[in-house]
Design a protein that fits this description.
With 64 residues, the chain is an alpha+beta fold. The chain has a single domain (2-63), classed as Glutaredoxin (3-Layer(aba) Sandwich). The chain is built from three helices and two strands; from the N terminus they run ααββα. A two-stranded antiparallel sheet has the order 1-2.
């Protein structure tokens, strides 16, 4: 549910992103585990990790 919201939000802002689907890509699950998360969505911008659909945190990370 929130994964779609993050993708929609980034698309509306014309931000390019890599979409990694943990249900179809085992490597994506490993990446998520390396970040110590087992929930989605997780958005990584440079060195910032945003969990969930958190607009203020996404906006702050995208400024940098």
């Amino acid at each position: 549910m929130f994964c779609g919201k993050v993708k929609e939000y980034l698309s509306q802002k014309q931000i390019q992103f890599d979409d990694r689907d943990i249900t179809k890509d085992p490597a994506a699950i490993l990446e998520l585990q390396k970040l110590d998360f087992m929930t989605t969505p997780v958005t990584v911008v440079e060195d910032k990790v945003i969990v969930g659909f958190d607009v203020p945190k996404l906006d702050e990370a995208l400024k940098g």
